[in-house]
Amino acid sequence: MDVEFLGGAREIGRSAVLVDDSLLLDYGMATGNPPSFPVGDPDPDAVVVSHGHLDHVGAIPSLLSGDARPPIHWTPPTRDLTRVLAEDTLKLHGGSYDCPFTEAEIARLSQVSEVHGYRETFSAAGYEITFFDAGHIPGSAHVLVDDGETRLLYTGDFHTGDQQLLSGTTARPDADVVITESTYSDVDHDPRATVEERFAESVKTTIWEGGTVVVPAFAIGRTQEILLVCEAHDVDCYVDGMGQRVTRIVRQYPDFVRDADALRRAKSNARFVTGRDGQRKRIADQNTVIVTTSGMLGNEDPLAVAG
Ligand SMILES: [Zn+2]
């Protein structure tokens, strides 16, 4: 088995691993101005995707330009999240040299998509592939690649502890070779319950003192986690930005979250911001919590100046 890193090694972003020049694992992009993409110009026979975060899927549509139509294997949530991210990238960078794909490539995603659940072995580019729940975001997977002689485990991002949204991974498949994410491998986190308690206390204190709390949160995974924490601690909140659409998507996959009922309660506890009729200005004047993608804090949005 010949393994080549096209990005993501010694850096965060644009993860891409090419196996034997034929099987591509992930194809991400690194945000920045301009964004950056994996090196080389791979022409894989099949693509297997670990999870729907930008640094693992951001450049996927560009694999469908020209005549190439490799099948793309992923879980159902990963498929949907990839499309949301691709549309967002197009909105931000479309028409510029910074965007390696157009609407046409995004539309082709559904033609080549093949979805699989956890622990259902399937074939791709002549390999036997199995997904295992990685406990990172809904639909996230460890990817086990077996060529009959060597078993390669590509972990993707994973989480071993329980979160409100997801249970930690317990999968430990046998492998000869492991490619692992290690971004926080040398960091000790405080116990989850302590962190949540501290967060809830600080939010309640701020509101009680007359403040407005803006919680910057990535749309995928983090926003849903914060909504669950708010509900669990009786904190009302608003959610703004891409996190709204992602929350609706995640709700469609009850089998891919820890407690679908809790997520339903968290979603109804959160009010979705439409932005109509000066709604943001009114919300910013209230003593409340607003969960929003961090990108929205940097623009002229009135929420950006809410103290
Ligand atoms: Zn991730």
Tag the structure with descriptive keywords:
single chain; alpha/beta; Metallo-beta-lactamase, Chain A; Rossmann fold; five-stranded mixed β-sheet; disordered C terminus; binds zinc ion
How would you describe the overall organization of this protein?
This protein has a 6-stranded mixed beta sheet. The protein contains 8 helices and 15 strands. With 307 residues, it is an alpha/beta fold. It is globular. The protein folds into 2 domains: 177 residues, Metallo-beta-lactamase, Chain A; 114 residues, Rossmann fold (3-Layer(aba) Sandwich). The structure holds zinc ion. Zinc ion (ZN) binds next to loops. The site of zinc ion has 4 residues, from loops.
Tell me the name of the CATH homologous superfamily of the largest domain: Ribonuclease Z/Hydroxyacylglutathione hydrolase-like
Question: What is the typical, i.e. mean, pLDDT?
Answer: 92
Bound small molecules, by name, code or SMILES, are: zinc ion
Count of beta strands: 15
Would you tell me the structural class of the helices and strands? alpha/beta
Shape: globular
Estimate nothing, just give the exact number of structural domains: 2
Question: What fraction strand?
Answer: 15-25%
Give the helix level as a range of percent: 25-40%
Number of helices: 8
Question: What CATH first level of the largest domain would be assigned?
Answer: Alpha Beta
- In the sheet with the most strands, the strands line up as 1-2-3-4-5-6
- Radius of gyration, whole Å: 20 Å
Low-confidence stretches: 298-307
The biggest sheet amounts to: 6 strands, mixed
CATH fold-level label of the largest domain: Metallo-beta-lactamase, Chain A
H/E element order: EEEEHEHHEEEEEEHEHEHHEHE
Q: Cα distance, first to last residue?
A: 55 Å
